[in-house]
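Quick one:
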Amino acid sequence: DGGTRRIRDTASVAGLFSLHGGTLKDATVVAPVGMLVVGHSSHPRSLTGTGFNGTLDGVTIDDLLDLNATSSQARVLNGLTINGTIEMGLASSLRFQGGTSQTLDGSGDIVFGPTGEKNLNIDGGTSVTIGSDLTIRGATGTIGSQGAITNEGTIDSDEPGSITVTATTAWTNDGTIRGQNGGDVRLQGPWTNNGTISIEDGG
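Output:
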């Protein structure tokens, strides 16, 4: 609890790995353990955290980051690469901190679940670029808060609900933002569009 686990080569975890207010640094989470869970997990083999603001520092997720437990929280420093999936549940959040420029990158996706609000928070003084191969999709959630955002990827409200993109400073869309299948998008704060924004078939 409260410490830092820095992975220089490979760490094998046979049971649960708990991130309880500590830091996972310079690590890549892969199968077969393959699941980083922030909150309680019913999976017999997983890398697990809690709702006590564990920190992911320069971490790559090549399988599943599970934020489905209510009020699951994780802080992000030095960027986050997702080549698998992040699943987010009721009142869960990822908070980008550190007052630096970071990337939310990779070829995977972030999925906002059907129940309640989910948040990708960006603290003031921090800026985040969403990479061109990353997709943020699903039901209700909010991307942004105070810090700047540049979206080069896909934000796809493809389930009933609404995805909000916001920043108190400014944000820029260089990628794709769309609503479909009953999903809406809400664009707030000062923003610039250099990409594509659309509402399709029932969005």
